[in-house]
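Cross-check.
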Amino acid sequence: FDNITPQTAATMTYTPLGAGAVVTTVAAKLQQIISVVDRGAVPDGTTDSTTAIQNATGSNILTWFPKTAAGSTYKITSLAFTGLANFEWKGFGVGGITITTATAGTMLTFGNTCNFGTIDGFVFTPTGVLANSIGLLFNGSAGNLEVRRCIIQLWSKCGFQHLGTVGTQMS
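Predicted model, tokenized:
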């Protein structure tokens, strides 16, 4: 046992099954999907997960919102993104993950140059009645965004508002 060289995720290799598999490091494989929980989000419906979600999404890759023993509701104040391209927010099933806020205003904005993104499997809802509030806002040159299997409910002003210049698909 004295001659065993310690391995790290950066030096250990990962080989997927099947023809054409590309060998990579375990570290590179783990970085392909970022969980908001990995960045400190707590899906208990009370802990503010705004910064954790902002940090996870800023990586411009698949951002996963897992169900955990703590629950499946992520509380935020408000989030605004610009410059995201080829991104995906992945919830769970049809509205299986809830994102909520107790802060009046716009909960979630995808602004200028947020393009070719997918938001899938969420419920977007306020905590209580919030005056003059918007759930999702696509603004400026945000476009080519797809919202699927989401429920947008109980907003006092507008659940979903698109002020962008390029089309958005909802399914």
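The chain has a mean pLDDT of 90. Residues 50-57 form the longest helix (8 residues). Passed to J.P. for a second look.
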